[in-house]
Fold this sequence. Notes:
- The structure is a single chain.
- By secondary structure, the chain is α/β, with parallel strands linked by helices.
- The chain has a domain at about 20-155 and about 225-265: Rossmann fold.
- About 35% of the residues lie in helices and about 20% in strands.
- Helix 4 (about 110-120) packs parallel to helix 5 (about 140-150).
- Residues about 1-5 and about 270-275 have low confidence and may be disordered.
Amino acid sequence: MGAQGQGMPQGPQPLPGVSHVIAVGSGKGGVGKTTVSVNLAVALARLGHRVGLIDADIYGPNVPMMLGATRQPNVVGDNRIEPILAHGVKFISVGLISPGDKPMVMRGPMLHQIIRQFLQQVEWGELDYLIIDLPPGTGDVVISLVQTVPLTGAVVVSTGSSVALQDARKALEMFHQVKVEVLGLVENMSQMTLPTGEVIDVFGAGGTEATARQFGLEFLGSVDMAPAIRKGGDSGMPVALAGPESALGAAFYKLAAKVIDVAEAAGADQTDVIEIS
C-alpha cells in the first residue's frame, strides 16, 4: 500500500491562491537582505498587489521588528495560523512565536517542519506575491523550501564588495543546483550621499551589476546606504511607506516594478518536480 497507489502528491505542490513565490537570498549575512525583503513587500502592496511575507530566517527573525508588529498570531479552524497584517503585508515569523532574545536552537528536520507549516498551514488567502526572506548562506531552509513549493524564482542581494560578491556567487550556484531561476541581483548599500552632497563609495558601487552581467542575469537595481533606511527598519516604519516619489523609497519601487516584470516572465511554468539527493 504505497503512497503512489493512494494517489499521494509527489514533489513540491503549488500553494492554492498564490500566484508567485519569490525567495530573497544572499550568500552571507550583513548585506541588508531582510531590509530589501521588507521594503520590496511593502512597495508591492502599495502598488496594489496582494502580498505575503515569510520570515524564513529562523535564527535571526527580524521581520516583526522591521514591520512594527510583534503580537502572536491567532490559531483558527483546524490548527491553521492567521498571519499578521502590517502596512498592507500579511506576514509570519518565528519571531512572533518566540519573541525576545531567546535563541532558536534546532536541527534540520525541525527547520523543515517550520518551513512547511509557514507555507501550508498559514491562511494566506489570495496572494499575487509571496516573498520569502531566506537566512544567509546555502543551508537546510532553502532545500526544505524547494521541496515544498515551486518557486517563481529568486532574488539575490549583495553589496558591491568583492567579499560579499564571492558569497553571492555561491548563492547563485545554490539556486542553480536546486533548479530555481534567479530573477536578478540587487546591490544594497551601494553608496552614501553626505549632507554636503559628496558621494562615498562604501562597499564598491557597481560590483553587483558587473556580476549580473558576468552571469547573464538581470540587474534589478541598487539601494543607497542611508541612515533613514536603518531608522525605518528599527522603528517598524519601512521607508517604502513614503511612496514611490520619496527620495529613499523610490529605489524600492523601482525594484518592485522590475521584480513584477521578471516574475511575470518567469512564472508561466512551475510544474517541474525537483528532487534533492
